Amino acid sequence: DIPIANFSIKCDILTIEKIKQMNEEASILLIGGSGLYSNLANSPSGWYFHCETKLFKEIRVPIVLYAIGAMNNFEYDVYGELSSKARQSIVEINKLSALSSVRDIRTFGILQKMGVSGHCLIADPACFLEPSPIKNLLKKFVAINFIDYKPILKHYSAGLLYIAYMLCASLKKRGYSIIFVAHDCLEHSFYLKIKENFPELLYYNEDNPKEMVYIYSKADFSIGVRCHSNIFSFAGNTPMISLMYDEKQIEFMSSIGMGKYALRIDKNLTLENAVDKIDNIIEKKGRIRKDFAELKKRFLDTELNFVKKVVGLIK
């Protein structure tokens, strides 16, 4: 029953005026996001939190840093090592925070190297989304997600498109339908490219995360480029093959015991390697689903312990 005010890291700046308003009206300031601990040149703090570092001390409500991560693309990386400005700001926000958590071991280590302590490791909260049923869903299908709007993915776009089309054709021969699950509007163009050569391709593009989880949960398995495709698949207890372009995907797939089903997007990525992963995942999908269900219970215990601490701060 507690109202929530949303602050967009893309277009809003936390000014001194907004801080004063927040101090009067809010119970806590909760900051969360998968890649916030990354360089952002036009941010006053140097990272994905639009607030001048010198203003942090003006914040009177408890600060909670929730499941934050750091981005690092394998090639053509636009983020790079954290700048001195960003590091100093991240250290300061952690010093002032009532609670701090990260979503992977790599980010945990980044904070440690900067001298930060007291932060804990929890899972991406999307891992625990409950599915919302959709009527008339297909009986036998594979969920896929491809993107090409990152610099590294633009470089390999032609190869990714070829692999996507050939995988769809291969899966069709095995009796599968294929549903392209779009997590945002930027992915529509890649769907259209695949559909030009594979007109049977189906599409889901609704702003409803719980319905997405339901689609993933009913798929035999998924193939995803976007990390949140992998995460939503895990939320639905569905095995996934990750086509990786960023360190965060290595971290996530390793954390759920699926490292061997991860393929790095580079010049060595081949259709044959992807098909080998498909053969293996079809054989072991039942066991993987059971393992996911057990693992999610353990992750949830840790998550709920952190959430209880957050709730305890709210006045």
Automatic annotation (TrEMBL):
Task: Enumerate the spans annotated as Polysaccharide pyruvyl transferase domain.
Answer: 20-246
Pfam families recorded: PS_pyruv_trans
InterPro entries in the record: Polysacch_pyruvyl_Trfase
Name the chain's protein. Answer: Polysaccharide pyruvyl transferase domain-containing protein
Give the organism, scientific name: marine sediment metagenome
